[in-house]
Design brief:
By secondary structure, this protein is an all-alpha fold. The protein has helices at residues 2-5, 7-23, 28-46, 52-63, 65-75, 81-108, 114-139, 151-166, 172-197. It has a single domain, classed as Four Helix Bundle (Hemerythrin (Met), subunit A), CATH 1.20.120.1760. It contains 9 helices and no strands. Helix 3 (28-46) runs antiparallel to helix 4, helix 3 (28-46) packs parallel to helix 6 and helix 4 packs antiparallel against helix 8 (151-166). Mg(2+) 1 binds at residues 66, 69, 87.
């Protein structure tokens, strides 16, 4: 939802940052890679070692690069096909690193129940499926816009859980994961329904060349 309705409010902050980065010679693709590397490092280094508040704060800061790089591309006259592919791929990497790191924290620090670890791994998988349904549908000419739990909501809920847990709110991470599980399952179904109801959904496709 925020990816659809939250762009205009965020632009007030993001656009000046994007202009400043362009002035110093940064490109959208380099910004994407820097943000991805920093977010992955913050996740895999800080979360499993129990530095949850710092992990949440740094992840929020570097996640903003995901908005900045797109704005930079638009200010330069539009993005490229490679830039969009790189950005989407890096989003999947950072999501995977975040939830893998949370799973490690649950196992090695929190001594969590196995079902909570399973919920975390399910959320990791579903985060990829949500994005894949949209990408595959749009590749087939279908219009799939929005959804209950998109990437911004997913990050906000997960990082809020980390932040609160770091401040001593017990089980905040587990609660956030269960919320994400339910919301993600709903969103997968929601996007598949959008695809099924699209007027082009019965169109014929050529056999795929390969995965």
């Amino acid at each position: 939802m925020l990816s659809v309705h939250g762009r205009k409010p965020a632009a007030v902050v993001v656009k000046p940052v994007a202009k400043a980065l362009l002035k110093v010679g940064m490109t959208p693709n380099v910004t994407t890679l820097v943000g991805t590397a920093a977010t992955v490092l913050a996740s895999v280094v800080l979360i499993p070692t129990g530095h949850l508040v710092w992990a949440a704060l740094l992840s929020i800061f570097f996640a903003a690069f995901d908005m900045v790089d797109g704005t930079m591309a638009r200010l330069r006259g539009g993005g490229t096909a490679f830039g969009a592919t790189l950005d989407a791929s890096c989003d999947r990497i950072t999501d995977g690193a975040l939830f893998a790191a949370i799973a490690m924290w649950l196992i090695y620090v929190d001594n969590a129940q196995p079902y909570n670890v399973a919920v975390c791994l399910a959320v990791l998988v579903l985060s990829q499926v949500i994005s894949y349904v949209k990408a595959r549908g749009e590749a087939g000419g279908l219009r799939i816009v929005g959804g209950l739990i998109e990437r911004p909501e997913r990050l906000i809920i997960a990082l809020a859980g980390l932040f609160l847990e770091g401040f001593g709110v017990h089980h905040a991470i587990e609660v956030s994961l269960w919320v994400l599980l339910v919301g993600s399952v709903f969103t997968v179904g929601q996007r598949l329904l959008y695809a099924a109801r699209d007027p082009k959904s019965d169109g014929k496709l050529a056999p795929p060349a390969g995965a």
